[in-house]
# Entry
Amino acid sequence: MFHQGKRRALHIFDCMQFKGKKENRIGGVIIVILVFLLLVLMPDWSKRLSPNRDDAKLKELQELAFSTPTYPEFYKVAETSGSRNINAGISKKYQSSASYDDVKKFYSDILITKGWIISEERDLKSFLVRHEWKELIFKKKDLSISIEYKGRDLSNQQYNYSVSYSWNRK
# Structure
């Protein structure tokens, strides 16, 4: 009789464990689904709460890019844009035989009179990069305009100048 009771108790315990495992499995699946939904929906929610809601900052950059004159000897080969909750940008790629100093003077004359400041000028050439490579960055509030120059040799590249307009959330 004692043996039968023990067996019956073990059977009930086994059923409880199985039921617990099944519930754990269902709970785990629910958690995975909730985490997945959170990861999928989070960027959309955070963008709705950001200053870039409805791509407001991208639209501001489009107006800025449209109103900023292009260097006369630039030939546009590509343009890209993107917009997220924390940043937005437009990048225009150009080919040109113009010197970096001439391009720098052109944009400096225009942008400084509009209240922009030169925040940084960098020589990006390194032992890995054999050609001339420079970047000039203008800032105004939370916006920046970057002029990048990759030398005159176009044999291994599609463009040698890029002008990028960007916003980054602080």
Summary: The chain has three helices and six strands. The beta strands are 75-83, 87-95, 117-123, 134-140, 143-149, 161-168.
